[in-house]
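step 3/5: co-fold with pyridoxal-5'-phosphate
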Amino acid sequence: MSPIYVDHFATTPLDQRVFDAMRPYFQQDFGNPANDGHHFGQIAREAVEEARDTVRHAVGSPSNSPVIFTSGATESNNLVFRGLAERQKHRRRHVVVSSIEHKSVLAPVRWLTQNGYAATLVPVAQTGVINSDEIISALTDDTLLVSVMAANNEVGTIQPLEAIGQATRSRGILLHSDATQGVGKVPIDMARLGIDLLSFSAHKIYGPKGSGALCVAAASTAAELAPQMLGGGQENEMRSGTLNVPGIVGLARAIELMQELTPIEQVRIRALRDALLSGLQKSIEGVQINGNLDCAVPGALNVSIDGVRSTALLARIRDIGVSGAAACGGKSATSHVLAAMGLNRSRIGSALRFGIGRFNTPEDVDSVIDQIVTAVGWIRNQPQFGVEIQA
Ligand SMILES: Cc1ncc(COP(=O)(O)O)c(C=O)c1O
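step 4/5: write tokens
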């Protein structure tokens, strides 16, 4: 049986069409866009600027607004928090973030609090959806920045950015969104939503790893960020280092394909996700949904199976690419997202995160169900692999 990948929130395979767009920039069009006094550099420069336009257009950022190409969302998020802190040393000193942000937001926030800033971590309901009123009531005259993700990477829940954006805009507070799991899946229009800064990575949307962007709605906001990478002054002094031209071209092609395919693709993906859930629930007792599928991106499914420790289950289904806790969070086993949603330890310990994606088929889903049903049956006969069920 060949391995089946249903972990598209961790990463996605590179789409062949994205690879085809990138390929020339590895070889014949290998030039350095900073050296555009000749043909080679000029070709590379044009490709990068075209990609910048594609990205702006895809996220509803004004033409000519800054798009800083980075190595991914982690770098973009760090640039926002650390960059703002460095430039804002004597001004507002409070940030508001949700408690279910990715660690690449939470860790820089912790760094801020160790460097003279105050942070409010706004709790989340058991649905995994942030209450915009709670964010808004955390704002003070000292608030510099609010950061709320577009969609969560563990339970897929889509967050109420529009209401938050109206409040931050009216009070002159910056709004950042980590849209790594939202770009291409939920409509992102920075201008309409009132988002000032937006981060994402290409590899979550069938693009290459090591490529991402920070989109900034206004040049005046970019001027408030201190660059974190110093050197040759690329990206308008915001991020030094020779540009990853194939990665940037791939990012733009990936986002373009998402726009083109999403309307049909997401319907198909949602149907597969629903089939997976009903197949699991039909054959396994005690499958509980974590989060709320009605307000989640279509491919997301996070479930806990009563009494079945996910580490034990994963060990028996090694040919299925699926996660226990957040795979992109490295080795730390427990999920701060599920904990913030108020789930108890046994429910967190038995959580499985599925992410259905572009290349999954109904046969994949059937096979995943069969393998999980068999593994759960085996584990339930071996009580030492279970988790104690807590109320
Ligand atoms: C919501 C979210 N933000 C940020 C990241 C970090 O992305 P990267 O590892 O590409 O920098 C991830 C995934 O790992 C994510 O899911």
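step 5/5: annotate
The radius of gyration is 21 Å.
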